[in-house]
Each structure stands twice: as C-alpha cells, then as structure tokens.
Amino acid sequence: MKKFFLIIFTLFIIGILFYLFSHYTMEINLNWDINIPIEDKLIYYEDGKDEDDINFHGDGRNYVVLEYNDERKIEKLSKINWISGKNKEVEIKALEVIEAIEVDNQYIIDFTKDYQYFYKEINKTNFIIIFYHKENNIVYIVEQKT
User: Fold this and answer.
1) Which of the two residues, 101 and 2, has the higher pLDDT score?
2) Are 46 and 66 in contact (CB under 8 A)?
C-alpha cells in the first residue's frame, strides 16, 4: 500500500512539474528572473531555424506572442516595471531578431500601436525585450541569448 501511494505521489509531482515547465513563461522566469504569469494562450512561437542559431544550452533567438484573458493574470502583468512610450532603438533591436528568425508577418508586433515595454540586457548580445499591447492584452517577447 505504501508503494502505491508513493507511486501516485511521484506521478502527481511529475505532472505538476511538467505543467509548470511546459509554459514558455516559466523559462523566462528562470532565465531572466522576470515574473510573467503563465499565458492563457500561446499565439505564436518561433526560434532560430538554422543550426548556427541553436545551441545545446538553449541559447539562440526566440519570438513569442502570448494572450491573456484572466483578470488575475492581467493584474500580475501590470506589476511589471513597464516603460511607456515608443523607443525606436528597442524597436530596431527587436526587428533584427524577428527578421533573423523569419517570423511570419501576421505575428510581428505592430509598432504603430501604443505599447509598453520591458528591456533587460546582460550584454550587447544577451537581452530580452517584452512588449505589451494593453488594449488587447497581448505580450510579445523577443529574446536573444548567446
């Protein structure tokens, strides 16, 4: 009987870990120490397609589009230290990554709309940019790790 409960408990823990680590936001939380809630919907995910852009350690470029509908998650999003206003330098840096990994045009962030953004840089080649379109609760994540 003890073995049965131990097996059930182990499967339960594995299930919880699989659920938590199957979301891209968990990777962001772990790699960048940015507390982003688990998305309600993953709209788009793209990473580097060529072998030069992919590394054994998870390095490379990523572009992710997430949607949030849950009010609690939206509230949690609002606690990020967003910067308001457009920033051409950040837009250009994001577009360089987006073009390098050939993101489908329909998922590219529309910089003509108002957005807030968060930028974190480790060095010139390791950075993350998170854009937030507040009117439709869409988050765009541009990440480069080398």
Assistant:
1) 101
2) no
CA torsion 20-57-131-66 (nearest 10°) is -40
CA 55 to chain centre: 18
Neighbour tally for 18: CB within 10 Å:
9
Q: What is the DSSP letter of 136?
A: T
91-105: pLDDT as tens digits: 999 999 999 999 999
Strand order in the sheet with 60-67: 41-47, 60-67, 138-145, 126-133, 116-123, 83-84
Phi-psi region of 137 (alpha: psi -120 to 50; beta: other; left: phi over 0): left
Q: Which two tokens stand for residue 79?
A: 């606690």
Which helix H or strand E contains 120, and what residues bound it? strand 116-123
This model's pTM is above 0.90: no
Q: Kindly give, in sequence order, each residue whose CB lies less than 8 Å from that of residue 18, ignoring residues fewer than 6 positions away.
A: none
Report the candidate in 113, 118, 115, 95 with the shortest Cα–Cα distance to residue 105: 95
- Residues 142, 60: Cα–Cα separation, whole Å: 11
